[in-house]
Amino acid sequence: MAGVYQRWSARDLAKTGEWSVRVVGRSRTQGRTHGHELPGTASYGDCAAGPPPPPSQRISMTNVLVVSGASRPESNVRSAVALAERAAIAAGATVRTRDLALTRLPIMEAGSGDQDLVPDVVAVRADARWAEGFILVTPEYHGNMSGALKNWFDFLYLELAGKFAGVVAVTGGGGGDMSIIAVKNCFSWCHGFTLPFHAAVRPADLQGGEIVGEKVCDRIARIAHDVVRYAPVILETFAAARTLGPGPAAGVAGMHVGDWDDG
Ligand SMILES: Cc1cc2nc3c(=O)[nH]c(=O)nc-3n(C[C@H](O)[C@H](O)[C@H](O)COP(=O)(O)O)c2cc1C
Questions:
Q1: How far apart are CA 106 and CA 128, in angstroms?
Q2: Dist. CA 80 → ligand 1 center (Å)
Q3: Band of the pLDDT at 27, cuts 50, 70, 90?
Q4: What total number of domains does the chain contain?
């Protein structure tokens, strides 16, 4: 089974209008399933970007996968991931997190049937397929996304087609543009759509590993809300186009007719 794997569900909270957050998960490092409650309010923390919308204005439960592209558990990426999770929940999403520092993916070998059976390969494909929207958080390494995130991409293609992603970079001082563009490029090459807005967390935005920069908090929250907002629209439109068959009228969706043997 997968590495640390969290499912943050706001489904029941939408009914009650309360904002406690339930976290269940499985930890590879602990070697056992665990679950715990995080009581309190799903807010944006210290760098508040406004209260969550009231339940009546919340968009229906969009499945959002937050992918942490860091390869070390204590990465500065953690704080951006946590903020993205909280904001997506506040926007009404059901959120899972794929932490690549705790996921044992082999380096992708094209055409390897053996790798198809590796539990973490099966798991990353399953949660990518589950997701309608993605928030992809990468450390900037050599003006690019991390190798861990690129390797994650290399195990995927059909799982990302017709989906929607927002991108966040965490840098050592750079503007983040190169890694953000690299991630967007990769998502597009898998026939996914990306948000024309993004965020870069720089050292000045961090204090003790936590994000304190208000502007970047605001941007991450906007990204999360937009992923929750647009992902279902894109996916529904893509699915409708697929029903037109493989011809040009279906656009790029026509290239994905029969991908999952479901027409
Ligand atoms: C191999 C490597 C390459 C890096 N390349 C860049 C870079 O191109 N631009 C930049 O701003 N920071 C760069 N950094 C710094 C990281 O982006 C920075 O440490 C950031 O906090 C995210 O990574 P972390 O997991 O170390 O926290 C690099 C770090 C490493 C280890």
A1: 17
A2: 15
A3: very low
A4: 2
CB atoms within 10 A of CB 123: 19
**Ligand 1: distance of its center to the CA of 199 in Å?**
16
Confidence of residue 260 (pLDDT cuts 50, 70, 90): confident
Q: Residue range 49-63: average pLDDT?
A: 59
Instruction: Report pLDDT digits (tens) over 190-199.
Output: 999 999 999 9
Residue with CA at minimum distance from ligand 1 atom 24: 75
Alpha carbons 51 and 249: distance in angstroms, whole number: 42
Query: What is the rounded CA–CA span in Å between residue 257 and residue 138?
Result: 31
Residue 244 has pLDDT above 50, yes or no: yes
Find the radius of gyration of the CA atoms of the chain: 18
Residues 20 and 117 in one domain: no
The phi, psi pair for 142, rounded to 5°, reads 50, 50
pTM for the complete prediction? 0.84
The region, left, alpha or beta by phi > 0 then psi within -120 to 50, assigned to residue 140 is: beta
Mean pLDDT within 126-149: 98
For residue 54, being part of any structural domain is answered with no
Q: In CATH, what number is assigned to the domain containing residue 212? A: 3.40.50.360
Cα of 140 vs centre of ligand 1, distance in Å, is 5
138 CB less than 6 Å from ligand 1?
no
| Mutational pocket test of ligand 1: of 79, 81, 142, the residue with most ligand atoms within 8 Å of the beta carbon | 142
The CA 186 to ligand 1 mean position distance, Å, reads: 19
